[in-house]
Amino acid sequence: MQIRLNTSTFRFDATRDYLPDFKHHTIMIAKRATVKEVLLEVEKKEYLFSFDKENTMVQINGTSVLGALDVAKAVELFGRDWTIEPISTFRANDDLLINDEDFYAKHAVLESFGDDEDFDYYKTLIREYYASGTLQYNQDYMGDSMFLYADYLINKYPVKKAAILEAIDGANGIGEYEKECNMYPYHDNAQKIYALEAQLPYYLKEGFTDKDMGYYDLAENTLCSKFGAGKDEDCALETIIDNITLAKIRPEVKHPFSDFKVAFYAGDFACENIAEVKQSAKEVLEAIGAQVVDFAASTKGDGFDIVGAERSIAYKKAGAIVFDAFDSGAEILVVDSKETHYMIDKCKKEVERAVGRDIRIPVLNISQIVGLSLGMSGESLGVDAHKITVDFI
To answer: What parts of the chain have a pLDDT lower than 70?
Structure first.
């Protein structure tokens, strides 16, 4: 069986181009084929098209994948419209080939703690390096790969632990790390890195107070009270899907969102099953009539974990989410994370200053938009506490 793909592929020659060009093609290919085979089809259509045929790594719709990924799974993850880019657009020099000197140069941070065998391990982390979310905002950032390498070295040479931790602390170091869903398949590297960070003397995490975000759970509590359901311990999305159920919500919809294009921020808290989370959110939003819009930044870090250590980058990350949703056509952004809502709504002015744009799109949590569709008042759902005005109520 064949699948029809609509590809938009990055073309760039650093010796003559100022900006990249994207070439569009329709490709028919077998479901059992791989991403590498898709690129070989692109090569047939594009003159002097370059990519690494031995160690194929690219981005599809902003997510780093290997060439061995099968097309059927890629379609499940990304749909049939693919934007294909190098693993680092910033370092691109010949189509999907990149200049990776920066990755190897940063090995110097921990070079003295290992040997050639250890360096061989470091080299296997190149995809983690270029998938580092913070690297997009700070080219001096050591890279997520450095902290995985530090964990590896500490396990191998525990006597060097204190010195290794000191080496990755400070400017451009581990304090700027934030979990991201930038790779598939996802590996839970965050657990290792956060464990290292927690051992440092200046482990900064700036949270919010109950006063800041006291309104956030109001909508979920109100929905549960209406339907006699219990709250899920993980998130409101699961409360709605599993405990309340869409079968009970659909007949109660009084004000469908059929006139609105709505984007859902899936976040970095569900990397292991991001496709399922996005599908569940789509079902909820479609149940209240909304037109669902996908956007590339829907799985990027929101900046919350680094706002205490690097405010400027944190606010730029939050801004990247809200403005990518807006630029993708969304009229409402829906979240299911108190941290994300804090970063975008409560830090509205800081985000606007960091990005240089005014936020013109309301941000609701998943319980609030469902509650509004059921005819509940904005006050009963906590919407009146937002800094970004929800003016369609």
So the answer is: 202-207, 209-210, 393
- Supply the pLDDT for residue 273: 83
Query: Whole-angstrom Cα distance, residue 213 to residue 390?
Result: 17
| Of residues 5, 125, 2, 1, the one with CA closest to residue 74 | 5
Determine the 3-state secondary structure of 101 from DSSP.
helix
Residue of 32, 36, 27 lying closest to 6 (CA atoms):
27
CA separation for the pair 68, 323 (Å, rounded): 33
- Sequence-separated contacts (24+) of 249-256 with Cβ below 8 Å: 249/284, 249/287, 249/288, 249/370, 249/374, 250/287, 252/374, 253/287, 253/288, 253/289, 253/373, 253/374, 254/373, 254/374, 254/375, 255/372, 255/373, 255/374, 255/375, 256/288, 256/289, 256/290, 256/373
Which domains, ranges and CATH numbers included, belong to the chain?
2-97 (3.10.20.30), 101-197 (1.10.1060), 210-385 (3.40.50.11810)
Note the pLDDT of residue 271.
80
pLDDT of residue 274: 84
In sequence order, the 6+-apart residues with CB closer than 8 A to the CB of 151 are: 192, 193, 195, 196
DSSP-derived pairing of the beta strands 363-365 and 92-94: unpaired
Let me know: does 236 contact 336? Beta carbons within 8 Å.
Answer: yes
| Closest by CA position to 392, among listed 253, 257, 275 | 257
Smallest CA-to-CA distance from 374 within 222, 269, 262, 209 is with 222
Residue written as token pair 């990149």: 98
pLDDT given for residue 203 in this prediction:
57
What's the confidence (pLDDT) of residue 207? 66
Question: How crowded is residue 28: how many other Cβ atoms within 10 Å of its Cβ?
Answer: 9
In whole angstroms, what separates CA 201 from the centre of its chain? 29
Alpha-carbon gap, residue 23 to 363, rounded angstroms: 34
Q: For the residues of 196-221, what is the DSSP string, one character each? A: HHTTSTT-------HHHHTTTTHHHH
pLDDT tens figures, 42-53: 999 999 999 999
pLDDT of residue 74: 95
Element spanning 83, H or E: strand 81-86
